[in-house]
Amino acid sequence: MDRFGAAIAAVLRPGDVVALSGGLGAGKTTLARAIIAALGHRGEIPSPSFAIVELYEPPSVRLPLVHADFYRLAHPAEAAEIGLDDYRRGAALLAEWPEHAGGFAHEPGCLAIALKDVGEDVGGGRIAIVEAGADWLGRLPCP
Ligand SMILES: Nc1ncnc2c1ncn2[C@@H]1O[C@H](COP(=O)(O)OP(=O)(O)OP(=O)(O)O)[C@@H](O)[C@H]1O
Ligand SMILES: [Mg+2]
């Protein structure tokens, strides 16, 4: 997770979305924290599961960053109601439960990562299935 997060952070740009899907406890926050730390943030990185949105600004990170957890949205339209477009302006978005916000896979800057805990029967650990939008061609993170 730390290496994968660092590889993403190294090429992340404003306007990008890293859409982190996977069930409860799949590792979405863990990967988001690895990205935020690799972008330069030092200290605690709260899970946005309660606040829904946590913001990070330079100089503590290399670029403006929105870390969101859309799990508690009752309807995708609530993403607009909380001002997501304003938060996103000039920033990269790390989105947990992206499908609760209507999904981002149609955006060329979307790096969709589906995490899965594969359990002990196949040696333990997590797998990540990555689908990249057109803006990611040539800069796919390979840890
Ligand atoms: N690669 C990993 N190897 C081992 N444990 C991990 C890994 N990734 C995450 N975990 C552990 O799994 C637990 C849940 O991880 P995390 O909070 O990142 O999941 P999540 O997908 O964000 O869950 P939620 O849907 O509740 O937000 C944590 O205890 C974390 O330490
Ligand atoms: Mg989480």
* Biggest sheet descriptor: 6 strands, mixed
What would the principal axes of the Cα set say about the shape? Answer: globular
Ranges where pLDDT stays below 50 over 5 or more residues in a row are: none
Tell me the radius of gyration: 14 Å
- The total beta strand count reads 6
Biggest sheet strand order reads 2-3-4-1-5-6
Total helical elements: 4
Oligomer: single chain
Give the SSE order as H and E letters: HEHEEHHEEE
* Structural class determined from secondary elements: alpha/beta
Descriptive keywords:
globular, single chain, 4 helices, binds adenosine-5'-triphosphate, 143 residues, 6-stranded mixed β-sheet, alpha/beta, binds magnesium ion, 6 strands
What features would you describe in this structure?
The protein has four helices and six strands, in the order αβαββααβββ. The protein has 143 residues and is an alpha/beta fold. Strands 2-3-4-1-5-6 form a six-stranded mixed sheet, with helices on one face. β5 and β6 form a beta hairpin. α1 packs across α2 (28-38). The longest helix has 11 residues, at 28-38. The protein is globular and about 45 Å long. The model has no long low-confidence stretch (mean pLDDT 95). Bound molecules: adenosine-5'-triphosphate (ATP) and magnesium ion. The site of adenosine-5'-triphosphate has 14 residues, from α2.
